[in-house]
Amino acid sequence: MELPQLKKGDVVRIVAPAKAIEETYVENAKRVLEHEGFQVQIGKHCLGREGYFSGSIAERTSDLQDAINDDEVKAILCARGGYGSIQIVDRINWAGFMERPKWLIGFSDITVFHQHLSRMQCPSLHATMPLNFKENSSRSISSISTALMGETLSYEWKENESNKTGVTHGELIGGNLAVLCGLIGTNEMPSYLNSILFVEDVGEHLYAIDRYFYQLSKAGVLDQIRGIVLGGFTGTKDTDPPYGKTFEEIILSHFEYRSIPVAFDFPAGHQDDNCALILGSRAILSVEEDGVSLKMSI
What is the pLDDT of residue 1? Predict the structure, then answer.
């Protein structure tokens, strides 16, 4: 499915499909994106609040649906994650999106929509959101514009001694590990066959990460993928007594008998340096002794 290549002056609309967000974050993001050359609209209920959420289920559904249906809107930027996307994904009429696809941008809880769009074979943008714009690195922000304007996204980063070397290609898929695993066995679970899996997470215990990977393994996902990229796993916690394995050791234990490339430390996730990834793109992953590269094209 072909997405529009944005140009200066095109419209980006900010919506809040999950947790409530303070106005200062949204207004800052609006200024940043306008400086990048885009027109920015704010969804009707984006700055609302109903308990934990930015609005009722009906209000949040309406904002996302309006952004999908409005032909003027070329990209939809989710204001933040938290929790709530799963409540509205089945309430959206995606038919218009299929006819006039547009960019959907976000990460964390927005993984629900990324997985749904993967099933529709429509690319989407795993990238930072207004909640984090103030702390983000400059390349986090610029990588969004790079992707939206149709330029090639390509990254190189330092080797990790725990990497497993190799070169592979496939459709890039994934997002937040906990959200992704929560969708296994549901109607939002896409096909992982011949894909490159990207995962990130925040604040998880080491044992929970191990459990998530057993879930991926027992669901057959790890036998279907051609490679895996590990993003930021910030705020990872141990137990008392200690779990007994490092994060890298846990991950590698699931790939001991799987001969695919494994790349740690990609700069994306719940961290300041949160670089954009085009999920659903054709990706080439090269894991060498002296460094790693990931290239994406759609």
Answer: 77
Instruction: Evaluate whether 248 touches 210 at the Cβ level (below 8 Å).
Output: no
The pLDDT confidence band at residue 298, using thresholds 50, 70 and 90, is: confident
pTM here is 0.97
Q: What is the per-residue pLDDT across 58-107, written as a single tens digit (0 to 9) for each?
A: 999 999 999 999 999 999 999 999 999 999 999 999 998 988 999 999 99
Identify whether the C-beta of residue 129 lies closer than 8 Å to the C-beta of residue 12. Answer: no
Mean of pLDDT values over 195-204: 98
The pLDDT value given to residue 2: 82
CA distance 212 to 180: 9
Helix/strand/coil (H/E/C) assignment for every residue in the chain: CCCCCCCCCCEEEEECCCECCCHHHHHHHHHHHHHCCCEEEECCCCCCCECCECCCHHHHHHHHHHHHHCCCEEEEEECCCCCCHHHHHHHCCCHHHHHCCCEEEECHHHHHHHHHHHHCCCCEEECCCHHHCCCCCHHHHHHHHHHHCCCCEEEEECCCCCCECEEEEEEEEEEEHHHHHHCCCCCCCCCCCCEEEEEEEECCEHHHHHHHHHHHHHCCHHHHCCEEEEEEEECCECCCCCCCCCHHHHHHHCCCCCCCCEECCCCCCCCCCCCCEEECCEEEEEEECCEEEEEEEC
- Hey, what domains does the chain have and what are their CATH numbers? 11-151 (3.40.50.10740), 154-297 (3.50.30.60)
In tens, the pLDDT along 206-217 reads 999 999 999 999
Would residue 8 be called left, alpha or beta, if left means φ above 0 and alpha means ψ between -120 and 50 degrees? beta
d(Cα 243, Cα 241) in Å, to the nearest integer? 7
6 confidence band (pLDDT: 50, 70, 90): very high
